[in-house]
Amino acid sequence: MILLDTTIIVDFLRGDSKVGAFLNNLQDTPTISLITEAEIYQGAKNTADLKKWENFISKLKVLPVTLEISLLAINLLKRYYLSHGLHILDALIAATAFVHHHTLVTSNTKHFQMIKDLDLKPWPLH
């Protein structure tokens, strides 16, 4: 299973046909973190964007931020914030991937590459 980072969803919403083809070819329902959903809504410029994005997100599986995910994110921040500048939202997304044993697909690998044992795949996939 894969977990899509916010960057992938943003690319799709901006009309990237490669992302659209990738999502259509997935065997499982595309999955995102609740954090990604929140980040997407934060980018809405008007109510039309908001409605369009709500419709799109309703077709995805959204994983909640649980206590286990929150505690793991805190540990990731303790380990990687000072040395690598890991941001809290990225820590929560990475922790979601860990807890659910998902591969994290992102076009922003530099935000996650320092995290040991994270199953990380750069976009575009090769």
Automatic annotation (TrEMBL):
Q: Which UniProt keywords apply?
A: Hydrolase, Magnesium, Metal-binding, Nuclease, Toxin-antitoxin system
Q: Does the record carry Hydrolase as a key word?
A: yes
Question: What cofactors does this protein use?
Answer: Mg(2+)
Name any one GO molecular function. nuclease activity
Q: Which domain of life is it from?
A: Bacteria
Q: Which residues cross the membrane?
A: none
PIN domain mapped to chain residues: 2-111
InterPro entries with a match to the protein in the record: PIN-like_dom_sf, PIN_dom, Type_II_TA_system_RNase
Q: What does the sequence similarity comment in the record state about its family?
A: Belongs to the PINc/VapC protein family.
The record ties this protein, via PANTHER family, to: RIBONUCLEASE VAPC2
Protein name, per record = PIN domain-containing protein
Q: What species does this protein belong to? A: Candidatus Gottesmanbacteria bacterium RBG_16_37_8
